[in-house]
């Protein structure tokens, strides 16, 4: 498709998007660029009245949107994808200001486009589940109504798009509630949507921490899809119970990676290092606990340290190949800082790193040295808790039974991986891991066609793929006699 200027936006001012109108509020707030500590452009602080107006518009738009043939809905989503592409550099710059080096920000915009393209290709067909001479029974999937996506700050564009695309494709209307730390990208996406979707179909509201509870309590919202911490996810689920909203929760993780003694270090170490420190450790499915067989532990650890030392860290103004960002916000910075303080308090042995860069004066912003903890105990906080920052424990293991017991000894169960040159052995181990996504010789190998969700306290339900699309639908059984 030839490029046009029809979808070009001004990226200097930001508004709520309600019923395809740009709305300001009496009170505004600013997020912070975590690499410079400079304020970002002001965004609205929504009130209950704004929430009521958006939900009312979404409810009013639902009958016509859900009755629109799916191919027409898909065509509009594809136009939306083209519009994002047309503003690619502007979205990259905005994501960078919200917390990432431009290279990493560009990857997120590209993955967002790819994810939406894949999602819009999915289709839910009616299923015949029983047929006799007298009747035929089918299962159909019908849209729920008004859906709300509560989106986290670590991938504010990609993770929101992973909810938006399937929700709209299934025939729901959708309201995007971004994190207060990364609101700007979402508001521009919704503004772009005003040029493509009918009024009320796609809206976005920014605000303070009280905005999410306004949506979870609203009686006309039919589904909340939340990505964030387990503690907040429990509050979301409890709030939705009074109105029996459908809920999808993608929550925290403490992903284990098990490295066998037969791996090729040159191939495996770079992949493990990247998927442990990707986005500065701020990915729910980053490797958080690394188990390395005792026979290769020393050699693996040495090469891991060597690899991590080559990583280039930077922020919104670092264009020379930096890929790894600072911690995104002060709240998370303080949490990670407390974990770093345990190094001295608990006597952990560091293989590399261990300092808070911002305090040392080497960088302005929420930076830490990428840190590897050498063989801490299973009871230590760095093993038991998800740090969500650039600090990784590496531990020795000796037997399959032992390492599986340790890997599964967590209330989390989002992702896990096994690394071995013996694929049969790797699959045998992988099938015993208690996690929603398990990979062999890879980690974070995510796909919009593959459902994503967790075991235990890592969540309920799934996003992505056909299963994720079904999560945006009611299930209806329809039994039809063959003779009147």
UniProtKB/TrEMBL annotation:
Oxidoreductase keyword on record: yes
Transmembrane segments: none
Leading EC class: oxidoreductase
Any one GO molecular-function label of the UniProt entry: aldehyde dehydrogenase (NAD+) activity
Keywords: Oxidoreductase
Highest taxon listed in the record's lineage: Eukaryota
Enzyme Commission designation: 1.2.1.3
Record family assignment: Belongs to the aldehyde dehydrogenase family.
Name under which the protein is recorded: aldehyde dehydrogenase (NAD(+))
């Amino acid at each position: 498709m030839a490029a046009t200027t029809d979808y070009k936006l001004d990226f200097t001012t930001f508004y709520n998007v309600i019923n395809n109108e740009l709305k300001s509020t009496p009170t505004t707030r600013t997020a912070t660029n975590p690499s410079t500590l400079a304020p970002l452009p002001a965004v609205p602080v929504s009130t209950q009245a704004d929430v009521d107006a958006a939900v009312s518009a979404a409810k009013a738009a639902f009958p016509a949107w859900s009755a629109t043939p799916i191919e027409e809905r898909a065509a509009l989503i594809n136009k939306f994808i083209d519009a994002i592409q047309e503003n690619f550099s502007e979205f990259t710059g905005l994501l960078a200001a919200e917390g990432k080096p431009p290279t990493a920000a560009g990857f997120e915009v590209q993955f967002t486009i790819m994810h939406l393209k894949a999602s819009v290709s999915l289709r839910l067909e009616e299923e015949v589940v029983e047929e006799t001479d007298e009747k035929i029974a089918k299962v159909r999937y019908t849209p729920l109504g008004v859906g709300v996506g509560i989106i986290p700050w670590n991938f504010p564009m990609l993770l929101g798009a992973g909810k938006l695309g399937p929700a709209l494709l299934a025939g729901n209307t959708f309201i995007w509630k971004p994190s207060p730390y990364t609101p700007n990208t979402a508001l521009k996406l919704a503004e772009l949507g005003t040029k493509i979707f009918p009024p009320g179909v796609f809206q976005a509201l920014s605000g303070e921490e009280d905005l999410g509870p306004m949506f979870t309590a609203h009686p006309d919202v039919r589904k909340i899809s939340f990505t964030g911490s387990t503690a907040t996810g429990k509050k979301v689920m409890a709030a939705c119970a009074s109105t029996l909203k459908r809920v999808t929760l993608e929550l925290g993780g403490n992903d284990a990676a098990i490295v066998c003694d037969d791996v090729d270090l040159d191939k495996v170490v770079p992949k493990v290092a990247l998927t442990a420190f990707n986005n500065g450790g701020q990915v729910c499915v980053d490797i958080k606990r690394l188990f390395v067989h005792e026979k290769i532990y020393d050699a693996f650890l040495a090469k891991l340290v060597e690899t991590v030392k080559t990583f280039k860290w930077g922020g919104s103004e670092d264009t020379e190949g930096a890929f790894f960002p600072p911690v995104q916000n002060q709240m998370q910075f303080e949490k990670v800082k407390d974990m770093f303080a345990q190094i001295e308090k608990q006597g952990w042995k560091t293989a590399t790193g261990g300092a808070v860069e911002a305090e040392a004066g080497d960088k302005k912003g929420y930076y830490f040295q990428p840190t590897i903890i050498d063989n801490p105990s299973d009871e230590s906080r760095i093993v038991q808790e998800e740090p969500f920052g650039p600090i990784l424990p590496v531990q020795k293991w000796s037997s399959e039974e032992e390492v599986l017991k340790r890997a599964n000894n967590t209330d989390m169960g989002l992702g896990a991986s096994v690394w071995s040159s013996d694929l049969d052995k790797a699959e045998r181990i992988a099938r015993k891991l208690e996690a929603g996504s398990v990979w062999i010789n890879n980690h974070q190998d995510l796909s919009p066609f593959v459902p994503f969700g967790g075991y235990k306290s890592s969540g309920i339900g799934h996003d992505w793929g056909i299963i994720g699309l079904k999560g945006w639908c009611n299930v209806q059984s329809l039994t039809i006699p063959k003779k009147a």
